[in-house]
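Suppose you are handed a protein chain with no further information: no name, no annotation, nothing but its sequence. What can you learn? This example shows the usual starting point.
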Amino acid sequence: MAQKPSIPKGTRDFLPLEVARRTYIFDTIKTIFKKYGFSPIETPSFELSQTLLGKYGEEGDRLIFRILNSGDKMKKADLSALEAGNLPRFANSLAEKALRYDLTVPFARFVVQHQNDISFPFKRYQIQPVWRADRPQHGRYQEFFQCDADVVGSDSLVYEIDFVLLFDEVLTALNIPDFSVKVNNRKILSGIAEVSGESDKLIDITVAIDKLDKIGEEGVVKELIEKGVSSSAIEKITPLFSMNGDNADSLAKMKVVLASSEIGLQGIEELEFVLNQVNELGPLKAKVEFDVTLARGLNYYTGAIFEVKANGVNMGSICGGGRYDDLTGLFGMPGMSGVGISFGADRIYDVLTELDLFPKETDLGLSLLFVNFGEIEQAYCMKLVRQCRNEGIDCELYPSKAKMQKQMKYANDRGVQYVAIVGDEEMSKGIIKLKNMESGDQFEVTANELIEKLKK
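A reasonable first move is to predict its three-dimensional structure. Written in structure tokens, the prediction is:
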């Protein structure tokens, strides 16, 4: 017995309706990216392993899909590393390439490689799939699309302001009714580590704090202890988890906490500027909130960090991003500041599905189907089909003579909007009987009237 076909966990097939809805999301995002001055680029689905590894921290590296070497390259496997128990080195010798984990690191590589072909500040958007060897669960996939916009070559906070506005405009255009843009600054987190006497454990602290909404305060404290963070430092950090009040109040409290940290105060100053400017340019639909526990565990962030959540939906963040001051330095081009954001299209899709927010137009199938009554009618209708297509109307002729019931079922299954019925009587009169498949109404039109109606 043949084995039932299947696909890997964490991946999905998309039926025509799903593709139409995804296209609606991509097109909405793309239109607004263009409005804000971003230009499109594309990069390969896989990169050299050395390009990706070491850029996302220890946890990120574990989630990178490696591509096994093939042919004679398999002979390069470092068996001595395997015998010595050095599994990372052995894995590297087996896989010289890897699927991209995100679009940001490949973008940094792209900028360095093409620095003589682009003008700075360089604003790009990119909508392509990425892969992560994460445990599949609701809202978390191993293959998913990211919709990124980045600016590289400027440290101006104008771009942070623009990105908050862009979050608001895109999610408003997608009709998401209630969402929050949470903001923080990595320099504030550096300040927290500094005043806690644990500057050398900044990465450990931020990775742990970033899990607060998943494992709770107790889980974060446990992880901090495991990472060797002192109990006195933990006592200074944990009160921040329950900080409340509006943005101004919270930032004022943080100024007191970080009074002895120059970098921490710099982060507060930057964040205050962004929030004040956003308020001046409002009102926004989004709730823009300072969240001191927002860490986003990627090592390359150095300034502002963002995360967006759809309120009232059981879903993780649907967008994120931040400032990275020297990501291109990893590829030999230091001093090139950048900032970027990413829309999680797959999670946005799930939110729109759960809240039934897709516009009706996205669910409409084929505009027009001609019924097939036989060879003579088929030849006549083929000319009408050709005429409609030349006018930009999507249509088709049922491929063979069949019972009307079968042809109408096909029309229903395809989500056809109108069915055209042309038999002997219609041909002799030079008319088309048109049926609206939603209302059931039928009326007679000429070919020109049909085209004008459907073009509208």
